Amino acid sequence: AANKKLLFLPGDGIGPEVMRQVRRVIDWMDRKRKITFDVSEGLVGGAAIDAYGVPLSDATLAEALAVDAVMLGAVGGPKWDNPTDYTKRPEAGLLALRKELGLFANLRPAVVFDALVDASTLKADVIRGLDILIVRELTGGVYFGEPRGITEIGDGERRGVNTQVYTTSEIRRVARVAFELARKRGNKLCSMEKANVMESGLLWRQEVTRLHQEEFQDVELSHMYADNGAMQLLKNPRQFDVIVTDNLFGDILSDEAAMMTGSLGMLPSASLGAPDANGNRKALYEPVHGSAPDIAGRDLANPCATLLSFAMCLRYSFNLDEEARMIEKSIQTVLGGGMRTADIMAPGMARCSTTVMGDSILREL
Amino acid sequence: AANKKLLFLPGDGIGPEVMRQVRRVIDWMDRKRKITFDVSEGLVGGAAIDAYGVPLSDATLAEALAVDAVMLGAVGGPKWDNPTDYTKRPEAGLLALRKELGLFANLRPAVVFDALVDASTLKADVIRGLDILIVRELTGGVYFGEPRGITEIGDGERRGVNTQVYTTSEIRRVARVAFELARKRGNKLCSMEKANVMESGLLWRQEVTRLHQEEFQDVELSHMYADNGAMQLLKNPRQFDVIVTDNLFGDILSDEAAMMTGSLGMLPSASLGAPDANGNRKALYEPVHGSAPDIAGRDLANPCATLLSFAMCLRYSFNLDEEARMIEKSIQTVLGGGMRTADIMAPGMARCSTTVMGDSILREL
Ligand SMILES: CC(C)[C@H](C(=O)O)[C@@H](O)C(=O)O
Ligand SMILES: CC(C)[C@H](C(=O)O)[C@@H](O)C(=O)O
């Protein structure tokens, strides 16, 4: 069989340095586990704008479509903060990847590591043991809906428009992913929208309910308005198992949940497409954190989120559950031993660089 | 001069019982302060659906348009949870009031009371002394944008659409309210949108920036993506003074901020229209909490949020700053003395009913 094909898109800011630690794990897999990846590398975001004038070149997109999985670092930075031309923004590269690869299901775990329970601004009693999975719809909604744009409407007035749109099948396919994941976890799914105000949210609620009736009656389903969801996450986060929501609410609520854990530098994500005839899905894996331009290039960033994203990659794209667990366990052990990058530093712990964190994790492996 | 005209709309659930405590304060003002209100009362929400078949009758709307200010309790409950006909939902009454009265600026303070600092799920050190004001746009955006609705598109598929739309003047008028309020407070305004993804958000950012340049250069202005805003609120809430944002982001973020304080039952809100030739604004005041059907009619609800909403009413609609402060101070004193309704009960405190909380506050007055 052909080698497993990976495309690396380190991107901007701290992207390259955290991705370097993944390279090391890939070498280890090659040497010690006899699992070989075929890794190509490309540019995305600001780095691609600098090189090609666009945040995602056709060649890079073609490569992304050809591989088994994409590993992404982070995109964006003040250098490219040019808010007037949307197509020339680093984010546009990421949005194009999501859309062109059809990555409609974005999995964002919000997990509190025992060793880091005090890093949260929430009380330890409230978040200890937290393990939520947010499934965010990623290729629809207001992010991609037409019509959109800004128009002059006379008298010096302008009008800005975006369109929130969802169809039955867009809702069903992401809800199906969420139901299936719930079955493998706590068997509870909460769907969030604003059905009390938005018809697109009402359709969402109706379609999720129908799919539940048809195929997933064994899963406990509840519905919540997204504003109440934002509150309930804070009030009692452990009431949730899997949450499914649309692109925009998912953006906000998953960031809220991520920050609740107190360790953004620890959180991975996976974005998955539809399974093909062989059950393979297009997929992209990236840390939840951003490009952190303020600390870029200084060997300060936390590589754990990216390494955990790679663990998700092993699990979801290559069925390498054992190796995924090994990576996850090594990270836990290293944290348990007191190693901390600056973002998760706490009194009494040992502060270390990106590289040294990588060293320690590799040693555990 | 004519008496000050107030319309009471107690609404559903705990609405009537918390509004009853406002009546008592109004009596006190009449007797002790020689300030007399002309109070009329009407139905809204589920109560209006039961009586008239619609959540806001034309007569009630006409009355709301005629008075100086509206005091609202809460709307909604499982009895009227009929998600298929939008016009027959309790929420539709509230949305119609906002729209018809032109209440475009929704002021939602998120304040942590010293006596209640432990009620939050956030660490006391993070939220002690918190005093944020969120200004939410309330009559535009995706709540009211057209086109909207659900349509059949063939093959058993449906399509749900909502439209996010903002114009220059809609953005400027709410931003102006926010800048002016910032001037009276910490002189800092943070504007939140998703300008990196939505053109309506980009217009928002540009117009807020332009107004700042033109009229409010003395106020410190910053911009934040709404997802980052959701995180920063949790990470370091006291970095904020006034936040201005659109209708939908405001719905989510203000609820997040409210829950962060740990005492939803304490938070008031004001919704203001444009000033007329005499500087008077249409206005509606309501607690941030909902109708809480589970405890309705049992004298358990916390009346403080509604009483504090009345204090806002005195301040913003009637320029009765002294009386507003008296109410606020009484509530603080009563809390300091250990009185607690069930929602804010804590070990060592004295649990009391809605009525007894009202008694105590009146005694302080
Ligand atoms: C960078 C930005 C376009 C993106 C989004 O809004 O989806 C980010 O916030 C995310 O959540 O992945
Ligand atoms: C009841 C509902 C329509 C309303 C809203 O979404 O605006 C509520 O959540 C609020 O924040 O006042």
TrEMBL record, chains A, B:
Positions contributing to NAD(+) binding: 290-302
EC code(s) of this entry: 1.1.1.85
Cofactor note: Binds 1 Mg(2+) or Mn(2+) ion per subunit.
Pathway the protein takes part in: Amino-acid biosynthesis; L-leucine biosynthesis; L-leucine from 3-methyl-2-oxobutanoate: step 3/4
Residue intervals of the Isopropylmalate dehydrogenase-like domain: 5-361
Keyword vocabulary terms for this entry: Amino-acid biosynthesis, Branched-chain amino acid biosynthesis, Cytoplasm, Leucine biosynthesis, Magnesium, Manganese, Metal-binding, NAD, Oxidoreductase
Catalysed transformations (reactions): (2R,3S)-3-isopropylmalate + NAD(+) = 4-methyl-2-oxopentanoate + CO2 + NADH
Residues that hold substrate according to the record: 98, 108, 136, 227
Matches recorded under InterPro entries: IsoCit/isopropylmalate_DH_CS, IsoPropMal-DH-like_dom, Isopropylmalate_DH
Locations listed in the record: Cytoplasm
Site (described: Important for catalysis): 143, 194
Top enzyme category: oxidoreductase
Positions with a binding annotation for Mg(2+): 227, 251, 255
Superkingdom in the source lineage: Bacteria
SMART domains xref list: Iso_dh
Cofactor needs: Mn(2+); Mg(2+)
Gene Ontology molecular function: any one: 3-isopropylmalate dehydrogenase activity
Subunit structure as annotated in this protein's UniProt entry: Homodimer.
Function statement: Catalyzes the oxidation of 3-carboxy-2-hydroxy-4-methylpentanoate (3-isopropylmalate) to 3-carboxy-4-methyl-2-oxopentanoate. The product decarboxylates to 4-methyl-2 oxopentanoate.
Family: Belongs to the isocitrate and isopropylmalate dehydrogenases family. LeuB type 1 subfamily.
Designated name of the protein: 3-isopropylmalate dehydrogenase
Lineage: Bacteria, Pseudomonadati, Pseudomonadota, Alphaproteobacteria, Rhodospirillales
Gene (UniProt): leuB
